Amino acid sequence: MALLQSKGGNLVGKRLRRCCWAAGFGLALLLGIPAYPQPAQKPASAALVGSDSRWAQIRARGRLRVGLDPSLGPAYLYTDLGRKTYAGFEWEILEAIAQTLEVRLEPVYIPRSQQLTALQADEVDLIWGAREGLGLDSQQFLATRPYYLSPQRLVVRDPGQGEPPIQSLAQLFGRKVGIVVNSTGAALLEAYNERRGNPIRLFATSNPERLFAQLQAGQLDAVLVDQPVAVLGLRQAGSRLRLVGPPLFPIPLVGVVSSQHPSLKEAVDAAIATLAENGTLQQILERWQLWEPTLMSPALTGG
Prior knowledge:
The protein has 303 residues and is α/β, with parallel strands linked by helices. Helix content is 36%, strand content 23%.
């Protein structure tokens, strides 16, 4: 698993951007109030929408070239060596989009840090995998309709005899909490600590497995991570750990196309909407234990 890469790109710049908006929501989150941010993105000019020929070209050749990096890791996107293919909930959604569009999926391995450049150079039609609309240059790139809202989840250990159970973020004052460096959870808690005089003791690592091992061993009181990471960690760690509280601060995950190809964005948006309407999107997320009925359907949040 490589959560550090799954939030990749310019990690330092992304962390700074996240800290700015995280500071505004930190107090509400720590009081147990979920927030649902929708990153603003300037829409393409009305004159451009659907006016290009990219989608027609893709339909004619019958192939959708998609840049991806399987080092994101479970449960996002990874290489299934046994089956000699890709796997992960994002891969299954991508396969369903291609099937809906009636084109063949052509995955192109591109390191995450080079994907936006490859898209600009027309080496691929779409880039995919734990991408956020936040921070995209709308003059160069268009974000698709969200296909998943990735929230933060609080993971705790079952309390021992006589220990009060942790039920929410508001109970973390004075406790030691594990975070993944450069993640949304890290930005939220770091921003809160900066405002409140460091009431929460943070332990940061780029290795999520280490966080869950230390939580099991009693070296941490809680862990705050992305839901896909939390679900995978619970499966691997066993029954002593559990999720508490509501999903917090879900971030929309999107595909990215060139701003020169709004017709492709429209086609992918329509496919994602179809998958939401016919239940396929829910089935995929349920299979990966990621479906959250308390959150709005990603296809209804706009794009």
